[in-house]
Amino acid sequence: MIWSKTEAGRAEVQARALVKERLQRNLLLLIDGVKTEEMLLANVVGLKPEDFKFLESLNLIAPVPSSSSSRSSSSSSSSSSASDRGNAATQPMSLPPSLDEPLSMDYGQFTATLTQLISSELGLRGFTLTLAVEKASTIEELRAVGERVLEQIRERKGEAVAEKARRSLYGG
Fold first, then answer.
1. Which of 55, 169, 43 is nearest to 101 (CA)?
2. Which class for 73: exposed (0-12), middle (13-18), buried (19 or more C-beta within 10 A)?
3. What does pTM read for this prediction?
4. Closest C-alpha to 76, from 105, 102, 103, 97
5. What does each C-alpha distance from 158 to 41, 45, 145 come to in angstroms?
6. Which residues partner with 63 through β-bridges?
């Protein structure tokens, strides 16, 4: 099963009010509408199926419909291009279409976009960067993390992908 964050889940990433257990907070950060529950269970030590149920019970995550055409376009910050979900672990993931649009420097939007970039471009290798996004408390700290993310993308995927990622974060 593939999960995505709800609006409440995205708000919880910022508020840090409902989910106190670190492993469950990290799971909420990693859920991106692309990775399967099985991938996350296999790659995150200590994670249990009950952790997904807990987040779902708080309405922070919801199952992604199996057909990408039936997904709501209104949840643009969690939308992703995942036409080949079956090979998501082995195929490089492209930037979600919603990230092609310029972003205003709103803290919440920047955080959501940055987290989505980490997930789609770096996968679980970007886990520590995802934690750095969660720890950041100002837009300046987020921009610093953003620069680290862009450098990792440049090293792993090349200049063209890094430039596209930069435009999704900063516009232009």
1. 169
2. exposed
3. 0.48
4. 97
5. 29, 30, 18
6. 3
CB atoms within 10 A of CB 14: 12
For 114-169, how does the pLDDT look when each residue is reduced to its tens digit (9 = 90+)?
888 898 899 888 888 988 888 887 777 888 999 999 999 999 999 999 999 988 88
CA distance 1 to 6: 16
Q: How is residue 76 written in tokens? A: 């643009």
- H-helix segments, the chain: 7-15, 22-30, 37-43, 49-57, 107-117, 127-135, 139-157, 159-170
Is 62 strand, coil or helix? strand
